[in-house]
Amino acid sequence: MNKLLHIILLLTILQSESLSYAAIPDSLYVQINSTDERIAIKALKTLVKTQIDSLPDECLYYARKAHHLAIIIDDDWEIASTNFHIGSCFDHKSVYDSAMYYYEIAKTGFQTLNDEERLVECLNNLGVIYKAEGNYTKALDYQLQALPIRLRLGKQQDICQTYNNLGNLYATTGDTSKAISIFIKGKEIADETNDTLANIFIGTNLSNLLVSQKQYDKAKPVLKQILETSQKKKHIPIEITALNLLAQIEESQNRDNEAFEMASQSLQKARKNNYLKGIIVPLHVIGNYYKKKGDFQKSLEYYLNALNISKELKLYEYQYLMNKSISEIYVLTQQHEKALLHYKRYTVLKDSIFNLENKQQLASIQSKYELEAAENEKVLLEEKIEKQKQYKDFSYVIGGLLLLVIFMLIGLIYNHKRAKKHLIELNEQNNRMFSLISHDLRGPIGNIKSIFKLIDDGDIDNPDEIKSIISESKEIVDSSYDLLENLLNWVRSQTGRITTHPQQIVIAPLVHEILKIFDSSVTDKNLRVSNQTNENHKVFADLEMTKSILRNLISNAIKFTHPDGEISIRSRIQGGYIIVTISDSGMGMDKNTIRKILDDKITSSRKGTHDEKGSGIGLRICRDFVKRNGGKMEIESEIGKGSHFSFSLPVG
């Protein structure tokens, strides 16, 4: 149930000076052409504020014209202000690099002028953009800078805004306890100032987190207050959200009738107002209700309806839950093929969500680390300044020695950072490798597990069906075995526990042997495969490594060649080396992917033309094994025009 709880980023990080379209009075057109530059600047900025949502390009022209006039009259405040307006125009056009550039210039100007009210607007907007860009560390830094200034200025609505922004950032990076604490502070201020709008938005974000942490007793009174206020203010989305959360609480506490009643109210209101996102949760709750009552057909109808809407809105967490619930219903009604189909979809979506959650956790850890590092750096800088003040009257000799020590420290820090960067790059590369491997193993192993569970439970007793499932399981096991074998070879290579035992090898029969392994895959795709290697060509290399090279390259060619395509294997002699080339008429790849393979970089897992899975490790092993046997690997490819993989080994 907690998976359904999304943090609704209502009253999400709000931009400053976001004003709606308003008709432009004729007098403004006269004022922008006034010979008095200050009147013209004021009129131009008014045009920007009133037209920025509908005419961002024209407003950018007005803002730049105002900035030009501000420079002419040499007014530092107007220069900073017009820079802010230029940044706002780029912001509305989603040109974030330029927006950040002008906001930073404006921020520096307002800091110099000690204008905290305008400074905090720059900090807020910079925080907004960094969050949109996924840089949560920077976003937190700017919002944390904005908070004490807004507390000093005492504008309660702005303070609520910053608390809400911070709460959303902490929630996004997985620091739930801190997010709850921040939202509570924001809601207390909204309560004290009777700010109804801020109250219901912050309260909704807070109650979402409380429900996700199963703190139902704390969430309920907040939700009831939100429900009452949203009904009075006729804020339909908030009202539906509150009803849905209350329904989920009742369901979690096994009060099924109350949950059904809440969900029914929410469903009726959401349908009436065509609020599709608000329909999914009550459909699921009502489906659960009928499932408990034993009315599986009715339960299935609600689940399928919820699944269709979640697909339409591309809400993958909901799709994941609906597929799981639908699979369970099909198991209960003895429709095992449909149950297995939806269980597989559930597993795939679960893996995707798992990876996304891992990324968010990593972002949270990185954010905390960088903030702590920034604080430490700030402390070190303050200490350094203090020491400089204490020793400024010392002699030139002492000053020179101190300077030498500082340079040494800088050198040590630089070397430490460089070594740390190298270590991080290695760790990232290995983490990416194991992330790809674990992702590609979870699916097949999960499928086998679900198959064995169905057999063990006695849900499948038809011999033909069991035979078909065993055949499918064999293909899954074969694929997983190849993946594990590649991983083992890679680990041995990386840890230096692999040695080469070169011997004389005839290439043609070895290629024939490898091709027989893939007979079924070739037949399934109706591929035309030709072994044109010369019977007299011999190489001097490690036999098992050579087999692994051929197996991975031929498997890769089969995987990425379309049905009815062609694959050829040829050999030739050149300068003391046998060059073997595997060519295919498949999907091909771009130059960037080729460069990553040849530069020993981990490449992303790609699916073949029949959705065959790949780990991205096979080609890297080929490159390593060819190099260990004194050869070289080359790739020629173009998207949509197939690939040519060539490797050279010494003549035997």
What is the fold's blueprint, element by element?
Blueprint: H1 26-31, H2 37-51, H3 56-72, H4 76-92, H5 96-113, H6 116-132, H7 136-153, H8 156-172, H9 176-192, H10 196-212, H11 216-233, H12 236-252, H13 256-272, H14 277-293, H15 296-312, H16 316-332, H17 336-390, H18 396-456, H19 463-494, E1 502-506, H20 507-517, H21 519-525, E2 528-532, E3 538-542, H22 543-559, E4 566-574, E5 577-584, H23 591-598, H24 618-628, E6 633-637, E7 643-650
Parallel strand pairs: 2-4
Antiparallel strand pairs: 1-3, 4-5, 5-7, 6-7
Shape, please? extended
Number of β-strand runs = 7
Read across the widest sheet, the strand sequence of neighbours is 2-4-5-7-6
Which fold name is given in CATH as the topology of one domain?
Serine Threonine Protein Phosphatase 5, Tetratricopeptide repeat
Overall pLDDT, averaged? 80
Largest sheet: 5 strands, mixed
Q: What's the CATH class label of one domain?
A: Mainly Alpha
Beta-strand content bin: 5-15%
The CATH architecture name of one domain reads Alpha Horseshoe
Low-confidence segments: 1-23, 356-371
CATH homologous superfamily classification of one domain? Tetratricopeptide repeat domain
Cα Rg: 32 Å
**Helix-and-strand structural type:** alpha+beta
Task: Measure the end-to-end span.
Answer: 65 Å
Quickly count the helices. Answer: 24
Helical amount: over 70%
